[in-house]
Design brief:
Blueprint (H helix, E strand, L loop, with lengths): L2 H19 L4 H22 L4 H5 L5 H13 L14 H13 L19 E3 L14 E4 L8 E4 L1 E3 L9 H14 L2 E3 L7 H4 L4 E6 L15 H8 L4 E7 L11 E2 L6 H7 L7 E2 L10 H14 L5 E5 L4 H14 L5 E5 L10 H6 L4 H14 L7 E5 L5 H9 L4 E4 L1 H7 L21 H4 L4 H25 L13 E6 L2 E4 H4 L16 H9 L6
Parallel strand pairs: 4-13, 5-6, 6-7, 7-10, 10-11, 11-12, 12-13
Antiparallel strand pairs: 1-14, 2-3, 8-9, 14-15
């Protein structure tokens, strides 16, 4: 219990006693009858551990849950959607809360979508659906040069740093990953003691600031990297080239959220914003990136190493593919972050108008790797507004092997999307370093909610796959999804997004015309 909560409880008890002593008067008696239950209710809110909002805002916080309780009846009138099939904030927020709490997540009265609207998407079911019982499908990460492959869940926690999130939020996510057997990406803010306390599988992200493996000048330190990367709990290494929230822009931790502990973990000074450089200093072209990947794989003891990026210029990604061919080095995975993704704060223009959307990026990356003949060596992770089983399935039909979710996991923790993440005033204690707020997050309770959300979402994914008549997620193809173009004009993803043939980009005479310009611009020796 925090000092603030102790003070509130002391004041409440004092008020009750004062009113009790004053009940010689009838008006004071009625005051006690009316005010006493409210005070007792406030005490109950402070002492309970299930709801951080009620712990932080006794009595008043209950109004939020009152409004939430009537949402199922009114939400159909407030649906937000667009023709791209993007997430519907209110509907999916309710879905995630229900799954996280272990409540029933079924819906009466059919779909809330306008199925006749252009852009509506759905999965084709089969007349011979399969009854699948493996609700924990696994995907192997690790190419030919990897000696310590990792069997990954299909849904994992996306990159969110300690500093952006509170220590209790980080511990809840990691403990949830441990309970459910899925992985937890550290974000570029390095591994903190809170990432390690509960033993959940870690994907250690290395950003341009090299936090956790930097020297006094901010450059990469191989010795420090090796010390951390060889920890048993670290399963994979991810080099962050760019992110969907602010592609082409370094990460930002506002000074208001920088504590001495975080400064020590990141090896940065106190007193100012922690801004990562836009680009890496350890490599300056695609060929050097491949050798950096090989270096990290060796230092980590043979663990899977990959990189994360939001697709920008197509020729630059094709240059990376050319570097794979010329060096013979391939990453074990590539995380494709959609330009619409990202939970971190960012400049408005960066958030809204920079970076390729996830769907287009996945199609391009999958085709590029196939065209260069390296797709079978590299896993693709999709990241960007993954909130439901259908979102995961859709990403997989476009080429993803697994997906990462950030906002889905935050919502399962109890995030209410107050959008104050960058101010250190998060009302739920999730995205703040204020100890009086983040202590309201009870790790044992919130971690179970994270595990619940992940488990139920993967279970629903498996049921969708079975409904399509498939034996597993690895059988998903673009032909299994439909999209209404306009009126009765309906096409499958296979018709909308033609796939390249394997090795077609290795032969100059067979390169499709739409790829010629970018292929000519791509150079393995420069960006």
């Amino acid at each position: 219990m925090t000092m603030r909560q102790i003070f509130i409880m002391f004041m409440c008890i004092s008020i009750v006693l004062i009113i009790g002593l004053a009940t010689l008067s009838l008006i004071w008696l009625w005051t006690l009858v009316i005010v006493g239950p409210v005070i007792l209710l406030g005490l109950h809110d402070i002492l309970q551990t299930k709801h951080s909002i009620r712990r932080l805002y006794p009595v008043f916080g209950r109004f939020r849950y009152l409004l939430e309780s009537i949402r199922p009846e009114i939400q159909q009138y407030f649906v937000e959607s667009d023709t791209s099939g993007a997430p519907i904030p209110r509907e999916f927020r309710s879905l995630i809360y229900q799954r996280a709490k272990g409540d029933r997540d079924t819906r009466p009265f059919g779909t809330i979508f306008d199925v006749n609207r252009a852009g509506y998407e759905w999965v084709n079911h089969s007349m011979q659906p399969k009854h699948l019982t493996d609700f924990d499908p696994r995907v192997k990460f690790g190419g030919p040069d990897c000696t310590k492959p990792y069997m990954s869940s299909v849904l994992n926690i996306s990159a969110m740093s300690y500093g952006a999130l509170s220590k209790n939020a980080i511990m809840s996510l990691n403990r949830g990953a441990k309970i459910g057997g899925f992985s937890h990406n550290t974000g570029e803010g390095s591994m903190s003691p809170y990432h390690l306390e509960h033993g959940g599988d870690i994907v250690w992200q290395i950003g341009t600031g090299y936090f956790g493996c930097r020297d006094d000048n901010g450059n990469f330190n191989p010795e420090t990297f090796e010390t951390n990367a060889t920890k048993d709990v670290v399963k994979m290494i991810e080099i962050k080239l760019s992110q969907g929230a602010k592609p082409g822009h370094g990460g930002i931790l506002p000074a208001a959220k920088l504590t001495q502990e975080i400064a020590d973990i990141r090896h940065v000074p106190m007193g100012s914003d922690v801004v990562s450089p836009p680009a890496h200093s350890s490599f300056s072209n695609p060929t050097e990136l491949m050798h950096f990947i090989k270096q990290l794989r060796g230092l980590s003891g043979g663990k899977p190493v990959g990189f994360k990026l939001c697709i920008g210029r197509r020729d630059e990604f094709l240059a990376i593919c050319k570097a794979m061919i010329t060096t013979g080095i391939t990453p074990d995975f590539i995380t494709v972050d959609g330009g619409e993704g990202g939970t971190g704060a960012a400049p408005t223009e960066m958030t809204n108008s920079v970076g390729t959307p996830l769907k287009d990026a996945l199609i391009f990356v999958n085709n590029a790797l196939t065209g260069f003949g390296v797709r079978n060596k590299i896993r693709i992770i999709a990241s960007g507004k993954m909130l439901s089983a259908f979102h995961i399935l859709r990403a997989m039909t476009l080429g993803a092997d697994t997906v990462n979710s950030a906002r889905g996991m935050m919502l399962s923790l109890g995030c209410i999307q107050a959008r104050t993440c960058n101010t250190d005033h998060c009302p739920t204690g999730i995205a703040t370093q204020n100890p009086s707020r983040n202590k309201a997050i009870i790790v044992t309770d919130k971690s179970q909610r994270v595990a619940n959300f992940q488990r139920e979402t993967v279970k629903n994914l498996v049921e969708l796959v079975g409904a399509a008549g498939l034996n597993g997620v690895d059988e998903l193809e673009a032909k299994h999804l439909n999209r209404r173009i306009e009126g009765v004009n309906i096409k499958t993803y296979q018709q909308l997004y033609p796939a390249l043939n394997e090795n077609v980009l290795l032969d100059e005479t067979s390169i499709p015309e739409s790829w010629l310009y970018d292929m000519e611009q791509a150079n393995a020796a420069s960006w």
